[in-house]
Amino acid sequence: MTVSDFSGFGFCRRILRALEDERYHTPTPVQARAIPYLLDGEDLLGLAQTGTGKTAAFTLPLIENLISHGGKPSPNAMRALILVPTRELALQVADSIKTYGRHVRLRHTVIMGGVSQRAQVNAMRRGTDILIATTGRLLDLVNQGHVRLDTCEYLVLDEADRMLDMGFIRDVRKIVAMLPRERQTALFSATMPKEIGQLASEVLDQPRRVEVASKTVAVDRIDQCVHHLDTAQKRERLVELLAPEDVSRVIVFTRTKRGADNVAKRLNREGINVDAIHGNKSQNARQRALQGFRSGSIRVLVATDIAARGIDVDGISHVINFELPHEPESYVHRIGRTARAGADGIAISFCDASERSQLRAIERLIKHPLRVVGDGPVGDERPRPANNQRRGGPKRHSPRPAKRRRTRRPGRQAA
Ligand code: AMP
């Protein structure tokens, strides 16, 4: 049997109803491959980036396992822990759980920095089924005795490579050391640097490996081009590019927070509905910006790489790299914001004389040169009609057989 629609996995009715509400018909490749393993109680190493549907790939089986195994959380404890690198991602994962779990009775809680800890402490008193947390605040609350980790049965590490980039891996190790060894663990990462391979071998037990090539999910389906120009020309060119109406929902990436503010100010002066999102903004301001962007009242969001992690907004028409990232992988992360879940998108990069080596590194990574757009009036990078027509649901894939077995593997014994 192949799993070409969600009913093939053996999810309970209440989950299937939530998926129908969301109009998800076809599992994405990472879902088709990861869900059977996770339902089966196996550990999983998932190589997949944002935009592939990875959040549903781990939250759906988690919800199913929690309800089918039954049980209640102990006070101050959780049954499942999802660790994420950023606050935005924490809120987005929580949103997914709310969506997919809307017909089931599971409690979920978010613990993250940047907001008062009191509500989080209160929420944890009764215990929670699923805790979504950033590492720093979670460790604070554990150290203050407000949260216990010793009864957690499921662990997900999401965007592990970002946790590494942001210097959180030591915290992750501290947290994992406090968890029971008898648990099911899934680790997701877009890339697999040596340190993540090492971490995976420490936290996973005979994991199944599921890899979704980033080329097929993002790079190949995105129309990419580069403008070679002087630094001083960038702002004016950006304003030109944003003029057409069909450039409708755009993320502009800058390298620095100040750069993001400056670009946003300039666009604002041009009468463009714009907001900036970066680490110096309060949590509230970031949420406001994201909500405005989602609802369409803000057409252009200017973001730094870290702030943009996990931004999950559908229908992004263009990603514009005002400055190229230092790490070529960030380019793939950035442009993956457009072309979500199988739709096509457009990515335009600016490259000044100081950024040529970054451009070369990117082209090496994606294994082809970016199309160069000449000076003069812009037009080439406008959306192509064929692209628009092809927008829609995810591509069909070759799914794997579903395993219906629900028992967890015996295996790991507590040390
Ligand atoms: P993620 O990779 O988890 O950030 O998900 C990317 C986007 O794809 C999100 O907006 C999801 O709502 C959407 N999505 C996830 N799975 C599916 C699916 N099977 N069908 C359609 N959209 C999906």
Structure description:
This protein has 415 residues and is α/β, with parallel strands linked by helices. The protein has 2 domains: 6-212, Rossmann fold (3-Layer(aba) Sandwich), CATH 3.40.50.300; 216-373, P-loop containing nucleotide triphosphate hydrolases (Rossmann fold, 3-Layer(aba) Sandwich), CATH 3.40.50. It has helices at 13-21, 29-39, 54-69, 87-100, 118-125, 135-143, 160-165, 169-177, 194-203, 214-217, 234-241, 257-269, 283-295, 305-308, 328-335, 356-366, 385-390; strands at residues 44-47, 78-84, 108-111, 128-134, 154-157, 184-189, 208-211, 222-228, 250-253, 274-277, 300-303, 318-321, 345-351, 371-373. It has a 7-stranded parallel sheet with strand order 3-4-2-5-6-1-7, with helices on both faces. Strands 10-11-9-12-13-8-14 form a 7-stranded parallel sheet, with helices on both faces. The longest helix is centred in the N-terminal third of the chain and has 16 residues, at 54-69. The protein is globular. The two termini are 39 Å apart. Adenosine monophosphate is lined by residues 24, 26-28, 31, 50-56, 312, 314, 340-341, 393-394.
